[in-house]
Amino acid sequence: MVDIKETVKAMCKEVAGGRSAMAAALGMNIDQFNNSLYEKNKCRFFSHSDLELMEDLSGTCLLAEYQASRRGLMTFKRPALGEIDNVDLYSSQMRADAARGQVAQAKLDAEEDGIVDRQEFKHVGGKFMEYMRHSAIGFIAWSSLFGFQSDAIELINSRKVEGYQFAASSPRCE
Predict the structure, then answer these.
(1) In 3D, which of 64, 73, 91, 85 has the Cα closest to residue 133?
(2) Are β-strands 164-168 and 73-76 bridged in parallel, bridged antiparallel, or unpaired?
(3) β-strands 73-76, 160-161: how paired?
């Protein structure tokens, strides 16, 4: 998500009943909700606690992803401690390998005509970030298997890679 209003709209789509249900859960009618969303009729945008409640109600991590992307961070699901085995590690590594292959294919496709345009670059960048996400999840899963999940998360959270910093999300977020 690149825009907070789009993030709110996306969260509303995930709630049964959409905006009306979200508005009711916030103690608003639909007009008050829309006025807050579009900042009309002297209404302020939603408070931070309203946005967090919307994220909880929608069962998504969209607000967290929006906030992370604003700062060049990436969110990913932290493997559940104590539930990791070698099969999980193998599956995690396979997903990372598949994502790495998609990065290579996207680069080849982008370079095919000898020119890489912005849209092609963004596509390759998206594939790369997906590869990085799978690699981080695999590292944390491996660390969890040997009792070092907290250390791995601390390590990842404290390192920047070319302007990106990684943030491990709670287990309920993917």
Answers:
(1) 73
(2) parallel
(3) unpaired
Q: Where are the domains of the chain?
A: 4-70, 76-168
Determine the longest span between alpha carbons in the chain, in angstroms: 57
36 CB neighbour count, 10 Å cutoff:
20
CA distance 84 to 145: 6
Q: How many CB atoms lie within 10 A of CB 154?
A: 12
Nearest to 46 by CA among 32, 57, 56, 58: 32
- Going by C-alpha positions, the residue among 65, 61, 79, 67 that lies closest to residue 150 is 79
Look at residue 79 and tell me whether its pLDDT is greater than 70: yes
| pLDDT of the residue at 171 | 45
Cβ atoms < 10 Å from Cβ of 119: 9
d(CA 173, CA 150): 17
Predicted TM-score (pTM) of the model is 0.62
Q: Find, among 62, 44, 50, the residue nearest to 23 by Cα.
A: 50
